[in-house]
């Protein structure tokens, strides 16, 4: 897997559990990030617990690089962001994940998002190495995010600046032409009329108008019209087989 130098590097500093490394890799790949760097993982690397937790993000784990220090891990990064819930006595610009993501997209040079150990977070020396601090606006009465949650928040904010979503089959289909809609509406009325739906006669026109507005409002495509007409045809056969 060749890494895109425009994408931020995710750096996990002294991660404690293999499962959390795997979950972080899964969060990364969900939003198009692939380069993972580990600083002194507690249980060594590779870790057999990481794979199952990654849920298919194996390529991220397989190419994860291991470093002894944070300085070594970000040696090629011009912009280093330390994620932490507090400033820890270091004076740095403080950004939200959204603000940091905008900077990553607009500035030149590689960027790194740095995350600390699960239990204690980044140490003061780790934060001092960064150019800026990223803090998630969070409930002050319960400021508790796990490692994968922190990674996914930052990865998601970065992904909003790129095109990741693929259109579905339904989104690719054009709206149904008017004659197909008219056929569906006519079929609805033919099915409802003998069942007494358009009573009393004085309200029949208004009821038909409401029905038409309802059936044209969603913007049906060709496949949806065909599906609905199939439903109506099935109902018609049932009524013919078992009339009142």
Automatic annotation (TrEMBL):
Protein's name in the database: tRNA (cytidine/uridine-2'-O-)-methyltransferase TrmJ
NCBIfam families reported in the protein's UniProt record: rRNA_methyl_1
Domain tRNA/rRNA methyltransferase SpoU type: 9-156
Job of this protein: Catalyzes the formation of 2'O-methylated cytidine (Cm32) or 2'O-methylated uridine (Um32) at position 32 in tRNA.
Key words of the record: Cytoplasm, Methyltransferase, S-adenosyl-L-methionine, Transferase, tRNA processing
CDD domains reported for this sequence: SpoU-like_TrmJ (cd18093)
Gene3D superfamilies registered for this protein in UniProt: 1.10.8.590, 3.40.1280.10
InterPro entries named among the record's database cross-references: Alpha/beta_knot_MTases (IPR029028), RNA_MeTrfase_TrmJ/LasT (IPR004384), SpoU_MeTrfase (IPR001537), tRNA_m1G_MTases_N (IPR029026)
A molecular function (GO) term: tRNA (cytidine(32)/uridine(32)-2'-O)-methyltransferase activity
Assembly and interaction partners: Homodimer.
Domain of life: Bacteria
Cellular component GO terms held in the UniProt record: cytosol
Sequence similarity: Belongs to the class IV-like SAM-binding methyltransferase superfamily. RNA methyltransferase TrmH family.
Reactions listed under catalytic activity: uridine(32) in tRNA + S-adenosyl-L-methionine = 2'-O-methyluridine(32) in tRNA + S-adenosyl-L-homocysteine + H(+); cytidine(32) in tRNA + S-adenosyl-L-methionine = 2'-O-methylcytidine(32) in tRNA + S-adenosyl-L-homocysteine + H(+)
GO biological process: tRNA nucleoside ribose methylation
Keyword Chaperone: no
Subcellular location per the Swiss-Prot or TrEMBL entry: Cytoplasm
EC number: 2.1.1.200
């Amino acid at each position: 897997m060749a890494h895109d130098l425009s994408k931020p590097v995710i750096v996990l500093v002294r991660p404690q559990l293999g499962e959390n490394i795997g979950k972080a890799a899964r969060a990364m790949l969900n939003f198009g990030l692939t380069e993972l760097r580990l600083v002194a993982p507690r249980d060594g690397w590779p870790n057999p617990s990481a794979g199952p937790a990654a849920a298919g993000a194996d390529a991220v784990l397989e190419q994860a690089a291991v470093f002894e220090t944070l300085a070594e891990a970000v040696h090629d990064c011009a912009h280093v962001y330390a994620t932490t819930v507090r400033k820890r006595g270091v004076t740095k610009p403080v950004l939200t994940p959204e603000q940091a993501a905008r900077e990553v997209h607009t500035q030149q040079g590689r960027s790194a998002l740095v995350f600390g150990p699960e239990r204690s977070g980044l140490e003061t020396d780790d934060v001092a190495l960064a150019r800026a601090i990223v803090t998630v606006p969070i409930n002050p009465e319960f400021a508790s995010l796990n490692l994968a949650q922190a990674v996914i928040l930052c990865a998601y904010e970065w992904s909003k600046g790129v095109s990741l979503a693929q259109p579905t089959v339904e989104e690719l289909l054009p709206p149904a032409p008017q004659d197909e809609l008219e056929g569906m509406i006519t079929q609805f009325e033919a099915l409802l009329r003998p069942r007494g739906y358009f009573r009393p006669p004085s309200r029949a026109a208004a009821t038909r108008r409401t029905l038409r507005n309802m059936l044209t409002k969603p913007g049906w495509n060709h496949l949806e019209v065909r599906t609905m007409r199939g439903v109506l045809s099935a109902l018609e056969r049932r009524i013919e087989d078992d009339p009142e």
